[in-house]
């Protein structure tokens, strides 16, 4: 388990807004790491620091064993980047942009390029100004994915893609994982990270609020249980870890802390269970829990942090 | 009138966006005009002194070509506003083009018009709003300039005529900008097209005025800048001439509406052709990309310089015939003959080319900032290349392009002049006159790069410096400014070739200044945040 990249206590301000505030991030080699946060939480700023485009005010960024600010050329040869908001040169065709970016990075695989053009159904002869948002995104994606590099920094790479292309993108990421490549994938789309990521870091207002595997993160949350009981529901609300109990005749509905699951199920079994459904917490719920309360402070700062 | 729905909202939006630009420009014009007038009152208090300077000016072909004639030598206003009429008209015309394009094609290209267009806004609303704002700004400029002149002690009628002649030029070129905005697809190209039209208008007037006797004199009547002068403010005002720019603007506006009705949002008149599916083998460096992005503009500028050079080179040999005053003719002959006049004319033209070439360098170097601001630079800087290598690509295009356009002008003028005089040696002399402008023009590129390195939001200081140097050169002597202030302009130090001796010193240190500004700017860019 070697470290692919890390930010330690990283802070970055733009004027009076703190885009990153003692932010920590650590990605190990070969993992697909999700980077989750609402718009303007500081995701793009963190990636730009990793690319050496921004200089941190304090804290230490490390990238592929080097200093992202100092070792630009050597490091960038080993990574590919897809910006969140892709703008293309109006007069250059998509094919030209793909080749230019690939060559500047140190070359790209022609077979892979052709394969990706087909998979993403992109017409490479159109001029930059003629592409829709989704197609501009595809140009940047193909340019990045056709490169044979160790690390991919993808900043909201699927914004503007239709569901079929999104599925194609997921296949690509899973292939990269199979080849042992490292991916940092920022997104505010939870389902995407849930389907793809080994580990997730959640960022809010420039601070890391949670890092771990999805299983670890789910441990911190509650499972929703709906059951129809043969016996009496009384006493359930007194159990440790049971929340929001609603009783409707024989039907009960509640949330339970995951570490209290065992006792709760036993208590249900004592009363006799006719039917039972349990829903694991979605990342959505995780996410909402982390943003409740902090949302008012976090939103306004966001817009400035991206600019 | 649903096609115009929402126009007033857009006018208010445009005024809000222009709330700094427009008042600042207007203030510059009003102050310039008023100060010029006041300074002339002090310099030439008597009729005799004015007649003397006016005769000298009218007898100097290079001055007539640049500024036109003084129509009433005894009139204080005519003498005072002689230079301002044309220099001001050029700047007002640029303002008109910029405002018209800024609120139409630039918004459309940025996609903001789509946002607005989805609201209850008619298809002609943006064009109409842009034109309303341009016309209003120019009228305000004209009226306030007139008030400034009256305050400086010039007669009211002449002042109003002068102010309106400026406004007329600005409105005429706003209409040019409106048409260009329909034809082209990018704001950059639309502005370029408008400025090209301005160059043609200036040229028509310059050729017309300096060939008054040769039957080409009527050419000035084809030029909106020529109309501005032929209003003859302070020299028996001819008010009816003001109808010409008005009619011109109305006609071009009609064309703009016709074009706007025939095209889709976001498109120009020519549909996009397919591009190559793969990048050419050479497209593998930042310099190759910079060249690819800028070659079209360089070709257009070079062609313009070549044509201008040929036209001015072919009239240079005839400027001596303009001397109708025998006394002036005798004086000139004593000073070294008509050849001196021809050389002075050529040298004056070359210094104008130097300014315009510097403008080329400024806009080429400004690509650095626009590439950064549109985030197009980001994927490049995320690739395996240093920041300096990326930035240097556009700087190289700016520096080399400045040289190329000046060579085009020098060759065009030199060959044309050589053909006229039958003296092949003139090619080298005139070309040298163009080449000595190169280091001074480079200094402006240096100023842009310096700003880009340290204060990227202030890169327009490049344009501001160019205008300031231009005004220092044009008006500094009139205002009797401190010579040290005039020395700030790099163009003051350029040897006046052909004619004067070639002084290598200034050329070397101007080059060194440009190189220093660029080096410091690039060093600054290495250290700052990108984005």
**Structural domain tally of chain B:** 2
SSE order of chain B, one letter for each helix or strand: HHHHHHHHHHHHHHHHHHHHHHHH
CA(first)-CA(last) distance of chain A: 35 Å
Radius of gyration of chain B: 24 Å
Instruction: Return the CATH architecture of the largest domain in chain A.
Output: 3-Layer(aba) Sandwich
Largest interface: A-B, 44 and 38 residues
- How much of the polypeptide of chain B forms β-strand, as a percent range? under 5%
CATH domain fold name of the largest domain in chain A = Rossmann fold
Q: Give the beta-strand count of chain B.
A: 0
- State the major sheet of chain B: none
> Radius of gyration of chain A, Cα only, in angstroms?
23 Å
Biggest sheet, spatial arrangement of strands of chain A: 5-6-7-3-8-9
How many strands of chain A?
13
What does this structure look like?
The complex is a heterodimer of chains A (307) and B (531). Chain A has 307 residues and is α/β, with parallel strands linked by helices. Chain A has 2 domains: 210 residues, Rossmann fold; 59 residues, ACT domain (Alpha-Beta Plaits). Chain A is built from 11 helices and 13 strands. A 6-stranded mixed beta sheet of chain A has the order 5-6-7-3-8-9, with helices on both faces. A 4-stranded antiparallel beta sheet of chain A has the order 11-12-10-13, with helices on one face. The two termini of chain A are 35 Å apart. Chain B is mainly α and 531 residues long. Chain B folds into 2 domains: 269 residues, no CATH class; 248 residues, no CATH class. Chain B is 73% helix and 0% strand. Chain B contains 24 helices and no strands. In chain B, helix 9 packs antiparallel against helix 10, helix 10 packs across helix 11 and helix 19 packs antiparallel against helix 24. The two termini of chain B are 43 Å apart. The relative contact order of chain B is 0.09. The interface between A and B is large, with 44 and 38 residues.
